[in-house]
Write a structure and sequence with these properties.
homodimer; about 45% helix; 8-stranded parallel barrel; about 280 residues; alpha/beta
């Protein structure tokens, strides 16, 4: 395996969910990969400080922590709880020495049909969190999710919408996640990637492929790189042309991958990455 | 039931798929509804001329025929077959005295990752079909489908893309379908509805609600009006502000509705239409 070409590859832990954090650390080191993306629940289960120590000992850096967000509630108490939870997520990100907290904005509150109002509540929440994030040296990265998640998970569906929100704040505090899975269908994405890069707002770049048929609930329908419809090399070229030279994180939620041997999945991800995204 | 307020309502036959064409005709007349939208397969099964006679006898007009399209194949023989099939669909539309053939553009050919090329093949097919459609007095209505269908069903995902294609041709020959289910998430939709209306290109206006969780394959996940996230009144206001005064067609694919008594479903559709879209 070409370790030089893997120098920008980061493995999001949900891609190999069957692995514990120690298995992830050992497996990545063995494969010549020195970056991982993490999720809060497994990190909390293992212990935040303990995870930080494990990864530091293995020489691994953390490219992002998933996830904060869920800012769209109408109930004031629920909104206050969401902000508290996001402050905790920022503390965790700082403890893990990652500079990026990924934000999934949240869907429509029950009974609401007001996408515009929900997006404004995302902006209000960002205003509240930016000073706290700045103190911890962590960037807030707004992730637009595919429009099929607009009602139940994320009212921010396009990179343009994410940038409209992010640009209300300084670029070193609020940026965006460019995730191929969510954006591949959008003919405006290339121009918006250029906009994001020019503004220094590509805080995370994630890869997963688009495959069909979508499973019930659609959340776990992401494909291994190369199995689907996405032209990763074009996405990477667009991001790099816009000045992005950061980590490239593979984040695939797929039960078939989770049922396999973790080392096999990691080897396949690295091979597909070299084949399709380099 | 307020028959005056139902004067613009059209029932797409797939909404009450459990009904035969005679049942649909009888049921609509009984409910004070004088317009239906049809699909080719059930019409062919009953007979095109026979359907035309049945509906004329019942005093029902046909607001649209679904569907032509599937223009994206790379294989020349497959493309020729698609054009032949669309000519047949135009003949059927003319025989049914509807002025509108709905087009679903088609997805990516196997192994292709080139959405842009696929959309150009849609434009080429339109060029081929426009003269034939003009001779029959039928308009070609490009339907943008939700981005979750971009790979396997329709590479035209937004109203802007549909209009970019349609505007290469005269407005009385090629227009668009504004279907709330496919467009509700898009913050550009209001401006594009204004563009479509100003150009006289809203050839069909269809309603279905967005509900979750999406079922496996996502095709049959549409919701009864009022059960989901879509603000129908805003859509209707936008279309009417843009000059649209045509039929409003309810097209819901939902197995739970198909399992019920057809007359009950029709009564519920009419009631929800009055409640949410008038």
């Amino acid at each position: 395996m070409n370790e030089q070409s893997l120098s920008r590859l980061s493995i999001n832990q949900e891609t190999i969910k069957q692995w514990s954090l120690p298995e992830l650390a050992e497996g990545c080191v063995a494969a010549g990969i020195d970056k991982v993306g993490l999720w809060r629940a497994p990190v909390q289960a293992y212990g935040v400080e303990r995870t930080a120590g494990l990864l530091a000992d293995a020489g691994l850096s953390v490219t992002s922590l998933c996830r904060g967000g869920f800012f769209t509630a109408l109930d004031p108490a629920e909104r206050a709880r969401a902000l508290d939870d996001n402050r905790a997520a920022l503390d965790e990100a700082a403890a893990l020495s990652t500079d990026t907290l990924v934000l999934v904005s949240g869907g429509l509150p029950p009974g609401s049909r007001d996408l515009y109002g929900a997006r404004e509540r995302v902006a209000e929440a960002l205003s509240e969190l930016v000073p706290y994030a700045a103190e911890r040296g962590v960037r807030l990265a707004i992730e637009p999710l595919h429009p099929m998640f607009a009602s139940d998970r994320c009212v921010v569906s396009t990179l343009a919408q994410a940038l409209d929100l992010a640009e209300r704040f300084p670029a070193d505090r609020v940026g965006v996640v460019v995730d191929t899975y969510h954006l591949w269908w959008d003919d405006q994405a290339p121009a918006q990637i250029a906009r994001a890069g020019a503004g220094g707002r590509i805080h995370s770049f994630q890869l997963a492929d688009w495959i069909t048929p979508l499973p019930e609930g659609v959340l776990l329908g992401r494909g291994q790189l190369g199995d689907g419809s996405i032209d990763f090399r074009s996405f990477r070229t667009e991001a790099e042309s816009a000045g992005f030279d950061g980590p490239i994180e593979v984040e695939i939620f797929n039960e078939a991958l989770w049922a396999r041997d973790g080392a096999d999945v990691l080897a396949e991800v690295a091979e597909r990455y070299l084949q399709h995204a380099c």
